[in-house]
Amino acid sequence: MQTQVSTASGFDPLRTYVHLPDGPEATLVPVSDDFWQTIHARTDLHEGRLLTSYRFEADWTHWERHPGGDEIVCLLAGAMDIVLEEQGGERVVQLRGLCACVVPRGVWHRGIVRSPSDALVITRGKGTEQRPVAKGGARP
Q1: Which residue range forms the structural domain that includes residue 23?
Q2: Is residue 138 part of a domain?
Q3: Which residues contact 123 (CB under 8 A, 6 or more apart)?
Q4: Which of 15, 22, 113, 118 is a Cys-bridge partner for 76, taking CB atoms 3.0 to 4.6 Å apart?
């Protein structure tokens, strides 16, 4: 269910994402615990991009990839590493303080939290996949 964005009132970006379709509108999308596991069923979100916000206090328990487009990770505060799984092995992008990176389309990636972090992420939701981080996986 989508709700029109209102300039008259604010919203909690940790509990509500913003869908930016390939047009002029922006719509609010309430977030449930299973949002990313059920994104494939949300055909209303398949086009355009999602603006999401997160508070990271622990390493990600999963890898993810977005075959529909590049992802932009903007760290607003804290310190974390984005680990990219590339053909030659893993590459680590360090994000510290106010910093950003682009995760290329279709690249498996995960986050290692060095200190509690706040991030703003822009991504295409269509086709998003997740897989668990292997137990005992190395922490770069």
Answers
A1: 3-132
A2: no
A3: 49, 50, 52, 66, 69, 71, 72
A4: 118
pLDDT class of 48 with cuts at 50, 70, 90: very high
Residue at 18 is within a domain = yes
Q: Name the residue type at position 26.
A: A
What does pTM read for this prediction?
0.85
- Using only C-alpha atoms, the chain has a radius of gyration, in whole angstroms, of 15
pLDDT attached to residue 5: 47
Contact indicator for 127, 69 with CB cutoff of 8 Å: no
- 137: tokens are 């996986």
pLDDT tens digits for range 89-137: 999 999 999 999 999 999 999 999 999 999 999 999 888 899 999 876 5
Cα distance between residue 118 and residue 122, in whole Å? 14
What is the torsion angle, in degrees rounded to the nearest 10, for the CA atoms of residue 125, residue 132, residue 92 and residue 38? 10
Domain containing residue 51: CATH number: 2.60.120.10
H or E stretch including 132? strand 129-132
> In whole angstroms, what is the distance from residue 66 CA to residue 124 CA?
7
- Nearest partner of 106 among 87, 81, 120, 121, judged by Cα: 87
